[in-house]
């Protein structure tokens, strides 16, 4: 009986161990404050890293943990950006509520599409998500009267945060705002992943056909996580729209989805911090490579991606964890 109880308590003990904060995690979040002190001229880039990290984190929830491969995830980012931007054009520019306007619109579309997503896997799923992204991109392009089409959404009027903190040119408010939003939703994602629901998602990723046999409804779980992921992607899009004061058509584009997938591969899918690390590495590398050669910076990004895939097949965090394990064994 004691052995049975010990085995039954194993998942709870595992989850409890995972929820404890490590010194490395604390150091990581403290390091996000360094741009304020050491790199104040790069605060706009730091803001872009924070927002993109949130977007890639939302992709990691469905790809890294549930095994849902998506090539159209930018659709939810763009929906959040357009919903927030259009609301501000028509007179409502309050930032905090604007975030949730964008997020709710993205989540509603994500929930509606999740009934299709939950029915398919592998190549069919890739084509469906790609088609969804292309469809919304073309709708936004044709609805010039509402979205501005290829000219982008114009006339946004975002109010100061709490009526005090205005989005300026130097990026102090934008980075502070995006960093706080990233941290809040990271905590939510961390809690979600280190829960019985998170364990069920990993089981679905490994074998979605066997999970219902142990009482985990695969399709229902996929619909839930897909809606949550769309909500988070909409938040990232809304923050970007508020900080930049405009929404471009490429926020819905395939290239944006592909970049997010590249960042996740770089950092390491299914590792929670992988999307954050991948976004930082990709955007900083792009910034430096574009300074060296503005026309061919994608060549260097391609070399970086090939090197990571060959030498660190599980991403940067996967490679570091292997090195750490070897060091401990030795």
What can you see in these coordinates?
The protein has 330 residues and is mainly α. It has a domain at 39-253. It contains 16 helices and no strands. It is globular and about 55 Å long. The mean pLDDT is 89.
Distance between the termini: 38 Å
Radius of gyration: 20 Å
Would you tell me the overall average pLDDT? 89
Q: Residue ranges: pLDDT <50 for 5 or more in a row?
A: none
Oligomer: single chain
Helix and strand content put the structural class at mainly alpha
Helical residue percent? over 70%
Order of helices and strands: HHHHHHHHHHHHHHHH
How many strand elements? 0
- Broad shape: globular
Can you summarize the main beta sheet? none
In short:
By secondary structure, the protein is mostly helical.
Helix and strand arrangement:
Blueprint: H1 2-8, H2 10-19, H3 23-31, H4 34-37, H5 43-63, H6 74-89, H7 95-117, H8 122-142, H9 144-147, H10 172-193, H11 196-206, H12 218-244, H13 254-267, H14 274-292, H15 297-311, H16 315-329
Helix pairs in contact: 5-10, 5-12, 5-13, 5-14, 6-7, 6-12, 7-12, 10-12, 11-12, 13-14, 13-16, 14-15
